Amino acid sequence: MSNSTQDFGIPVLTEVIPTPARTVHAETPSEPITVAPADSASLATDSKAVDPAAHQPIDSWLDEEWTRMEQKISERVLTQLLERIEPVLEQRIRDSLAQVMQVAAEGIRQDFHQTLSDAISDAVAQEVDKIHFSKKQNNL
Question: Residue 33: which of 51, 15, 59 has the closest Cα?
């Protein structure tokens, strides 16, 4: 591919692409801020120059606004953490419950075998006693 042929439809890194103005709603109960597209002349003159009227200083925020901002951030962080933690916690609970249920099932199985064995032994003993009793009755 040669560098002499350039596709004029593709912007290059030094070219600034104009974008339409957009409205950004701030977290505070102030008016929406309109962001104008940057032009290449203003970017070329001074990239560090900032219009002080474009930014609202947060030094003048009231305690209520700080409290609201803190509450919103806390809720957002808590929601994000819960979304990450809940699947891990659920899996660990499932694993723990599976182990507990397996131990409980084994215990129930052993108790059932012992109870069944005792019941069968008692039934066999009763039948043997009946046979001995009937033989004694016939011999008399």
Answer: 51
DSSP string, 56-96: --GGG--HHHHHHHHHHHHHHHHHHHHHHHHHHHHHHHHHH
- Alpha carbons within 13 angstroms on the beta-carbon side of residue 114 total 6
Please, what's the b/e burial string for 31-58 (b: 16 or more CB within 10 A of its CB; e: otherwise)? eeeeeeeeeeeeeeeeeeeeeeeeeeee
Tell me: the pLDDT tens digits for 38-53?
Answer: 554 444 444 445 454 5
- pTM of the complete model beyond 0.70: no
